[in-house]
Amino acid sequence: EAQVTQNPRYLITVTGKKLTVTCSQNMNHEYMSWYRQDPGLGLRQIYYSMNVEVTDKGDVPEGYKVSRKEKRNFPLILESPSPNQTSLYFCASSFGQNTGELFFGEGSRLTVL
Amino acid sequence: GIQVEQSPPDLILQEGANSTLRCNFSDSVNNLQWFHQNPWGQLINLFYIPSGTKQNGRLSATTVATERYSLLYISSSQTTDSGVYFCAVRTGSYKLIFGSGTRLLVRP
Hints:
Distance between the termini of chain B: 41 Å
Helix content of chain B: under 10%
Helix content of chain A: under 10%
Largest interface: A-B, 25 and 21 residues
Mean pLDDT of chain B: 93
Number of helices of chain A: 0
Distance between the termini of chain A: 36 Å
Order of helices and strands of chain A: EEEEEEEEEEE
Shape of chain B: globular
Number of helices of chain B: 0
Radius of gyration of chain A: 13 Å
Low-confidence stretches of chain A: none
Structural class of chain B: mainly beta
Structural class of chain A: mainly beta
Largest sheet of chain A: 7 strands, mixed
Number of strands of chain B: 11
Low-confidence stretches of chain B: none
Radius of gyration of chain B: 13 Å
Oligomer: heterodimer
Largest sheet of chain B: 6 strands, mixed
């Protein structure tokens, strides 16, 4: 089954404790992206990747890192999480860079205390 | 940048009723998608529809790219249709830009 898989789905952590949210897709997609969703602010792009070893900042990259060492994986790293990073996070992928249907993971709800 | 506007912002229906949701966008787009975000927060792909008309069961969508709008039709609504419906467009900037959504509540 074609899908985008995120882990963990739910996480409660404390300020400053490094964490990684993994994202994996099995559709051989070139393009992958991370979004966060906050009440009243909608979905905002954090980082995106057009292919292996090619990443770029989205609208709200501060406090986040990403890497794309393999085509299928695009982890989101919070080196020193802060409470303002409490949010619902989505990973997404598509075949093309600016065309093609975008598929979303099920979301990861992160709480930073 | 491109603006994406959805209407109405909120909609309450009685089960069995039909509805039309609208998405207007301010510039040419490479693609357009409709999503349903269910009460558990999951984003469900409904349609990938840069132009033309598609149908999937009780749902159908039409995009008129030259006039910069798209419509999502829900017929014979069910309580499970409740949630938020998003329209999202992609331009040449690799980014998917979301509208603010239509919050739908279907009452039994």
